[in-house]
Specification:
The protein has three helices and three strands, in the order ααβββα. The protein is of the alpha+beta class.
């Protein structure tokens, strides 16, 4: 897991300085994007607990579930779960593959009293 995070960060550093990893042309990425287009989008039910922890489970694609101790990095954690589900290697995981420019992110939260 630490090695994957290192590779992911190194790839993002390389992208920042103009290196093209051609992730758009990788068959695994093409397959992932095709599946996401087929279902329209991946939706999540996010539950937050009193201790600050949370879980997110896809409501329209079985098998994607993730969570964390705080909500600080919720979007990146969910993206990581999606990439993992589709078996995308860390060097090809680019945020631009999962979300278009100016696309809103909606988070639903249930409050129980």
């Amino acid at each position: 897991m630490i090695l994957n995070k290192f590779i992911y960060n190194l790839a993002n550093f390389a992208r920042k300085y103009g290196y093209n990893l051609n992730e758009e042309n990788d068959e695994r990425v093409i397959s992932m994007k095709r599946e996401i287009n087929r279902i329209g989008r991946i939706e999540f039910k996010i539950e937050q607990f009193p201790d600050g922890s949370w879980t997110a489970e896809s409501t329209n694609l079985d098998g994607i579930i993730t969570g964390g101790d705080n909500t600080k990095n919720i979007a990146s954690t969910i993206k990581d779960a999606i990439f993992t589900y589709f078996e995308i290697p860390p060097h090809l995981c680019s945020d631009s593959l999962l979300r278009g420019d100016n696309e809103p992110v909606t988070v639903r939260q249930n409050v129980y009293a």
